[in-house]
Structures are given as structure tokens and as C-alpha cells.
Amino acid sequence: MADTRDFLIGVLVGSALGAAGALLYAPQSGEDTRRLIKDKTEETKQRTVEAAAQTKTRVSDALSQAQAKAGEVSSQVTHRVQGSLEQGKQLLEGQKSAVTSAVEAAKQAYTEKQAALKADVAADLSPALAPASSEG
Asked: Contact 27/55 with Cβ under 8 angstroms?
């Protein structure tokens, strides 16, 4: 795009310099020279307006393409992020399930061990608490 712009500027400047040089060396009267300068100025002005319009159109097209590409990239990124989030959720659910299972197993082991210890304590205390009916 910059090459095209540089080329257009070069064409315009070259045209203006060429026209000025031709006018300075032309064997014409002052009135004819002024008219020719006016005509060349109008011609250069028209070329500049046309070049500006073309540039505006190209910039507009490039902007539209850039916006479309940005939308496409944004859509792709959004899709990938959603996929990653879904994978993260699934992984988290799996870890949550594993932790829940481990906690339940620990509760069960605690309950069983507590019952076993109570039974052992009760067994150890039974002879001491039994009435001494055989003595006496």
C-alpha cells in the first residue's frame, strides 16, 4: 500500500515539475503561459482528487478486510477458549469426584476404627466393672 502511495506522489510531483519546466522554456506570451499554468494546475488538482478518492477506496477496502479478519480471529479464539474452559471444567469435576471419594473413604475408616476402639475399651473395662460375686 505504501509503495502505491509513494508511486502516486511521485507521479504527481513529476507531472508538476515537468509542467513547470515546460512552461518556463516555452516560447509563448505571458497570457498564454498564465492560461497554460492555470490549465495544468486544474489538471493536477483533478489528478490529486482522483488519487485521493482511489486511496480512500483502497483504505476503506483494507479496513473492511481487516475488520473481517479480526472478527474471524476473534471467533476462532472464542471457540478455543470455550473448548479449554470445558476441558478445565471436566478436569475439575474429575478431581472433585476423587477428593469426595477420598473424604468418604476417610470418614468410613474413621467410623470403623472408632467402633473398633470402643469395642476394645469396652472389652478391657468389662472385667473391671463386673460385680465381684464370686468373692465373699
From this structure: no
**Whole-angstrom Cα Rg for the chain:** 47
How far apart (Å, rounded) are the C-alpha atoms in residues 123 and 81?
62
With 0-12 / 13-18 / 19 or more C-beta atoms within 10 angstroms meaning exposed / middle / buried, residue 26 is exposed
For residue 30, the Cα-to-chain-centroid distance in whole angstroms is 64
Cβ neighbors of 40 (< 8 A, separation 6 or more) are 16, 19, 23
For residues 96 and 30, give the distance between their C-alpha atoms in angstroms, rounded to a whole number: 95
For the stretch 77-90, pLDDT in tens is: 999 999 999 999 99
Per-residue model confidence as pLDDT tens digits over 57-68: 999 999 999 999
Question: What is the reported pLDDT for 25?
Answer: 73
Amino acid at 20: A
DSSP 134: S
Cell of residue 51, nine digits: 488519487
Phi, psi for residue 29 in degrees, rounded to 5: -75, 165
| For the chain, percent of residues with pLDDT exceeding 70 | 90
Confirm if 48 and 5 have CB atoms less than 8 A apart: no
